[in-house]
Specification:
With 79 residues, the chain is of the alpha+beta class. The chain contains 3 helices and 4 strands, in the order E-H-E-H-E-E-H. A 4-stranded mixed β-sheet has the order 2-1-3-4, covered by helices on one side.
């Protein structure tokens, strides 16, 4: 089975981001992190997915965006 690429859009100041990163690491989920303050090229997608806000963390799995998910949400999306 092919593993799905996981990307976390986050910021350094976001407490929810830090918690989700820790929880995913504890679950053995690897991910690529994109800091939106340093790389705002994804802002429009995040804002569109969240109903008008630049909400972090946002997780991308395949072509699906999960806005402010729990670790359980991410694990469920990974199957």
């Amino acid at each position: 089975m092919e593993s799905k690429r996981v990307t976390m859009f986050s910021t350094t100041w976001c407490g929810h981001c830090r918690r989700l990163k820790r929880q995913l690491a504890e679950e053995g989920v690897s991910f690529v992190e994109v800091d939106l303050d340093e790389d705002p090229t994804h802002d429009r997608r995040i804002i569109a997915a969240s109903g008008g806000y630049r909400t972090v963390p946002t997780i991308e799995i395949g072509d699906r965006l999960l806005v402010n998910p729990t670790a359980r949400d991410v694990l469920a999306a990974l199957g």
